[in-house]
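Task 17 of the worksheet. Students: predict the tertiary structure of the chain below and write it out as structure tokens. Keep your answer in the requested format; marks are given for formatting as well as content.
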Amino acid sequence: MPRNVLPDELAITPVQRPIQGRVRAPGSKSITNRVVICAALAKGTSHITGALDSDDTRVMINGLQNLGFEIDADWEQHVITVRGTGGLVPASHASINCEASGTTMRFLTALVSLGHGKYVLDGTTRMRQRPIGDLLSALRSLGINAQAGSAGDCPPVTIQSSGIKESRTRIQGTTSSQFASGLALVAPCMPDGLLLELTGTLVSTPYLEMTRNIIESFGGTCEAREPNHWHILPTGYVAQDYEVEPDASAASYFAAAAAITGGTVTLDGLSHTSMQGDIEFCNALEQMGCIITWSSDTSSCPSVTIEGQFLQGIDIDMNAISDTVMTLAVVALFAKGPTSIRNVEHIRDKETDRIRDLACELQRLGANVEEHPDGLTIYPAPLRPARIETYDDHRMAMSLSLAGLRSEGIRIIHPACVGKTFPDYWVVLENLTKHSRN
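Model answer:
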């Protein structure tokens, strides 16, 4: 089905036999949106290849352009050219619509603190319900006037800055790793660098390691003196040619499709050494009974192959791979015995409440579900036809569509919401599964 030509509801057609095929997921959203921040602040011109074309990445690019950064995006070729400013924010005032993009809101809120002027960042109704107070508090300790305009310290955000005044702050790591990542990404351009203390129980720690890796790829220095103390030196950034690896979160849907149908799917471009934590989703499937085969470490074309087998329910802490919670929950529908997913309370503050609303939709499908403060337990039961509400959440749509590969009568409401991170998802899923329907 062509991109952007989608009905209000999309029926999922079950497959008749196990899926067999290969998929290369689009570029990582998380990497793309981090890399363009570094490139914008670097000295020189960076060329980013394999960049993701999605709502979230376009919103980030538009936001940077509104701030005066010179960026050319060839979305058809997945190439972004960024002429860096050497750590300066060109515009002295801007109003930025972050729409539903959390990375854009968090990263640009931190970035404009380097500027001299007034900046307003806003977004969707849901964005105005997603707390950002921890980041604003950290910025205030650095000498920035940072205010939230909605109840509960939620956007819109107003930043009035005359430059960073301090070099030490702390930030809570319990709500979102993006707060710490946003500060860290701009820290090499702060006058004296930054000593950043991460307090509380950290969530999604692989994304913090991703941030450190990308900072250093652009010439920055991020020293982890202790697990929760980062010292980021005022080195600035140097322009790079950077290739974005495929999105492991997006690839999880096709790995799950193999598991659910007892098929075999190879994910190209991903290896067990990926900087993306969500590559560990493959290990979760292995715990459930799938056979996972990684290509050789020396391969020039890395890949991982997932072979679906008899599935067994598991008990799993998914804090480090929380973007794949919904994907695993759907696999759990087809396992023997219950599956318990733990330590992911922070996903209640995502595009939707990804615990409460996921439980609701799994129950709509016929599963028995226990909702917990930090996760849920899924008891498989015979599935029934259902119209699946997506809550304008791309991951809800993509994950729950997989149930329709094995169960009749599954329809996805508002399927176009996948455009946030994977506009061509329905096309790729159709191409992968079409030969298994005959």
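Marker's comment: The CA atoms of residues 257 and 402 lie 6 Å apart. The mean pLDDT is 95.
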